[in-house]
Design goal:
heterodimer, A: mainly alpha, two-stranded antiparallel sheet, B: about 200 residues, mainly alpha
Chain lengths: ~60, ~200
């Protein structure tokens, strides 16, 4: 799965730690999400969407699509 | 793009202190392990493996403590101290049956092992509850990989033993193998998420 997390985070000038704190996860998890090493659970994906105030489908996309 | 990285914000002095601390831990562990192995040339392989596992988990505990002190943001919140406690207790569990009988009766030592195991189990449950979803997935994958590898190896070993092709391995030897496989599985699972 592809995502725009790094771009969205950079747009707000947040560090990975800032985003991790907002999501209630570790910085390692944010790093793994941004590098495509981890796909979030549905609850975490909704949380990410709420934090960035965007629909999930504008943040995540199917890599095969 | 102006994304910031945690690692780039570390002062040079902190990086140097971290490198020196890691080097010191590695040197101490290497010195201790070589001394222990040289002093026990007649020890069974199961004791040597248990000692190696104890040194490994205690080294990981030391490295985790250094990382927690120097770069707390790289440790999942609430997990750092618990991870260190779990690794320290695992090291004690491997060392106690070999070295504690010098100081106490075997039944007393066994009682201590049971107590340590109970505390470590509680710490493991607390660690699971404190972990975020990715760390929980790493733990789950570690368990799955270790189980698959060990049950495959155990079946082959059991069949060979039943056929009289190999000698029986003691329970002490088996638990050393289990820990070795678990450590390798945890490294693989963590590396897949970019943690190791």
């Amino acid at each position: 799965m592809n995502n725009r997390l790094k771009v969205l985070r950079a747009g707000r000038d947040w560090s990975q730690a800032d985003l991790a704190a907002a999501l209630g996860v570790s910085r390692q998890t944010v790093n793994a999400l941004e590098t495509g090493r981890y796909d979030p659970s549905l609850p975490l994906a909704f949380k990410i969407a709420r934090v960035f105030e965007q629909p999930i489908e504008s943040i995540f996309s199917d890599a095969g699509a | 793009m102006t994304s910031r990285s945690e690692s780039s914000t570390q002062p040079l002095a902190v990086k140097i202190i971290g490198c020196l601390a890691l080097g010191a831990v590695g040197a101490l562990m290497g010195y201790g392990l070589s001394n222990a192995l040289e002093g026990n040339v007649d020890a069974p392989w199961s004791d040597s493996l248990a000692l190696a596992m104890a040194v490994a988990v205690l080294t990981i505990a030391g490295l985790s403590a250094i990382t927690l002190a120097l770069r707390p943001s790289t440790i999942p919140r609430g997990c750092g101290v618990l991870q260190i406690i779990v690794f320290l207790l695992a090291g004690l569990l491997f060392l106690a049956p070999m070295y504690a009988p010098v100081f106490a009766a075997p039944d007393i030592v066994f009682g201590g092992v049971v107590l340590i195991l109970a505390v470590q189990t509680v710490a493991n449950v607390m660690l699971w509850r404190a972990a975020d979803e990715m760390l929980r997935q790493v733990m789950s994958e570690t368990g799955a990989m270790a189980f698959w590898a060990l049950q495959t190896a155990l079946f082959l070993y059991a069949a060979a033993e039943r056929l009289g092709l190999i000698d029986t391995i003691s329970g002490w030897g088996l638990i050393g193998i289990v820990m070795a496989v678990y450590l390798i599985a945890s490294i693989v699972a963590a590396a897949r998420r970019g943690i190791a």
